[in-house]
Write a structure and sequence with these properties.
By secondary structure, this protein is α+β, with helices and mostly antiparallel strands. Helices cover 31% and strands 34% of the residues.
């Protein structure tokens, strides 16, 4: 399945809500910033910020080329002063579409935006150490682990560790 990225819109918030069954799942794909009970409002606020400050923050809808169906979501935070960006909140919505290469295509599109369009030097992301499929996807895209943040996120009585990853423009085959 081929994809393209488009500007996230308020109409697509409902899809993200439908893809997110509970706080644990939300924490897995979005990190600790979003809360399950206020997700709609937080997404609206972030969308407003992205529209006002596209040089700092961008929200993307991932759409199937074949049928124009919304299938995923991702965000890009931009640090122009340091010529870097951070990929976050990557979510392939439909479980049946996971593991089919969509994540790799999505990351590749984001890296092209960062390195070609925005002319940045470095892109980072964070992934929980138990998310093996995402780690493999990011490594395939050229990201390298830069350590381990041990037990840095707590969900109920369990601690999760985070792997920060990065890629430089010089490491990206354009």
């Amino acid at each position: 399945m081929k994809i393209y990225l488009s500007q996230f819109s308020e109409e697509e918030i409902s899809a993200i809500l439908s893809w997110t069954p509970n706080q644990k799942f939300l924490l897995e794909w979005a990190g600790p910033v979003y809360r399950f009970d206020t997700l709609r409002e937080q997404l609206k606020k972030d969308l407003e910020f992205s529209l006002e400050y596209p040089d700092k923050f961008q929200m993307y809808s991932v759409v199937s080329v074949e049928d124009s169906q919304l299938i995923a979501h991702a965000q890009l935070s931009i640090d122009g002063q340091n010529s870097s960006a951070h990929i976050s909140r990557v979510l392939i919505g439909n479980e049946n579409l996971r593991g089919k290469g969509i994540g790799f295509q999505l990351i590749h599109h984001l890296l092209k935006i960062a390195f070609v369009k925005l002319k940045l030097n470095r892109v980072t992301l964070n992934v929980y150490d138990f998310n093996h499929s995402a780690i493999l996807c990011y490594k395939k895209a050229g990201f390298k682990a830069e350590g381990l943040l041990k037990d840095n996120t707590k969900f109920k009585d369990v601690y999760w560790s985070t792997i920060p990853m990065a890629i430089l423009k010089s490491e990206f085959p354009i």
